[in-house]
Structure formats: structure tokens, C-alpha cells
Amino acid sequence: MEIYNTKLRAEVSDKNQLAQALSRADFSFVYAPLQLLSSDTPCKDKIIAVPNVFLADCEDEILCKLTQLKAMGYERVMAHTVGHIPLIQKAGMKLHGGMRLNVANSLSAEFFADIGFEDIVLSCELTVKRIRGLRCNIPYGIVAYGRLPLMITRRCPINDGKPCNDGSRCGRFLRDRKGEKILALCSNTVELLNPDTLTLSDKISDFETVDFFVLRYTYEENVIKELECFKQGGKPKGKITNGLYYRGVE
After folding, report:
1. Distance of CA 78 to CAs 33, 50, 84, 90, Å?
2. Does residue 184 sit in helix, strand or coil?
3. Which of 226, 21, 88, 70 is nearest to 144 (CA)?
């Protein structure tokens, strides 16, 4: 099954990934952290800005940044939680729902449609069967590739619990009880990433009701490899998982 560009989106975590994703017409939209965006960034109409997950001590700062981005020509922002909605609305920007909104049924999907969201990414805990039964008046997608977060925290479990706010990827990791490497993705928060990479490149035909698929890049140096795999419907290699889409929450 060939996947056309209107169905693919990228979520990036560094400037190299952003430049690669924006250079490809295959991606209809690119989700990018606020700190990567500036007046010089090309293809602003293709970018969905991604703010900090936690707003407890930076709400005014985020609103200011969104207002600045709006003045630069950016139009779209991802909402991680309902707390992001008023900030995005105040900045006069378009709402796009992220996976952390935990949209898990038609009722929640319609709620976000009714308050003006352009589209939503469904919860990663939904099964194929439940996704097929979902009804919504706006486009909805799923995360179809990437290392999903096992947890997200303001304090770094690797660096003695100190705040992580340097905007870099430290490259360090933890090991779980099975010896698996748990990578840390650091920005204003710390995400501990699943050691297995989610990929559905050979199973896209099971998701015929889904409007778009998000390829979530964390530590990848080359975004094109997985893009081509999805376009061709290729069978993935390496240590992979299908997530919860086929087995549900145990």
C-alpha cells in the first residue's frame, strides 16, 4: 500500500531533523519545538509549533513566544493538554491536538472538534478496532513511528534530579531491570523513551479510517530512511514494537 504525502507528518526534536523534514514534500506538516523556530525558518505554513508540556512556571513566557511566532507568520500550534488551549487562542493561532490529550473515543474527539481544533492525534493506547469505530468531524491521526515516552518529568533522573533546561540531548540513559537502554530526550523537560521503536510501516492498510500518520523522530540522524519505508509499506527491521494498537492496555 503506497502512502501519499497528505497522510504523513513529521515530529522533530532538533534542527537537523527539522531541516530535513521541511525539505521533503512528503510531509504535509512538521511538528517542531518552539526553541527551534525563528523568523528565518522556511515553510512556516507547514509548521505546527510545539510548546513546553508543563506550563506551571512558564505560562507567560510561552504566551509571549507564541505571540512573537504569530507576528513572524506562524499559524499553527500543538496543544499537549487543555491548559494549552487558552494560550494558543490568546495568541490567535490554530489549534492542533497532540497525543497527550488522550483522545480515546468519539465523544472526546467531538469535544475538541466543537471548540475549534483543526485536527487531533489519537491516544497511543487505542486499539485498531477502537480506532475504526471512532467518529469525528475533523481529521484525526495516530503516531505510527518513533520511540514513545515511558514517562516525562521536570527533574532529570540521570543528573541527580536537577532541572533539565539547556535544550540539548544529553545522550545519557538508564537501564531497566532487563538491561534495556532507556534513552533520555532532554529539553525543558526530560522524556524517558521506550527502548523499542514503534513502527507501523507494514501495517498501514489496517488503519484505513485514519487521516494522517505521525512519524516521531527523537535521536534519528536521518529522517528519510523511515519516510521511504512508510512510503513503500516496507517491513521494518531491528528492535521494534506495534505498541498497544493490537493488544490494548494490559
Report:
1. 10, 5, 8, 14
2. strand
3. 226
β-strand partners of 79:
97
Rounded Cα gap, residues 40 and 33, in angstroms: 15
Distance CA 190, CA 90 (A): 27
Using alpha carbons, list the distances in angstroms from residue 81 to 4, 73, 89, 100, 157.
29, 24, 13, 6, 24
Number of H helices, E strands in the chain: 6, 14
- Which of 99, 85, 87, 89 is CA-nearest to residue 31? 99
Grid cell digits, residue 110 = 467531538
Contact by Cβ (8 Å): 43, 22: yes
What the block records as the C-alpha cell of 52 is: 513546553
Is residue 63 within 8 A of residue 90, CB to CB? The reply is yes
Amino acid at 35: Q
Q: What is the pLDDT of residues 139-198, one digit of tens each?
A: 999 999 999 998 888 777 877 766 665 555 566 777 888 888 888 887 777 888 999 999
Q: Give the pTM.
A: 0.92
Gap between the Cα atoms of 68 and 45, Å rounded: 15
H-state helical runs in the chain? 15-22, 59-72, 85-90, 106-114, 128-132, 224-232
Task: List average pLDDT for each run of 10 residues in the chain, which is 250 residues long.
Answer: 66 95 95 96 97 88 97 97 96 97 96 97 96 95 94 79 59 78 79 91 93 94 89 83 86
AA letter at 109: A
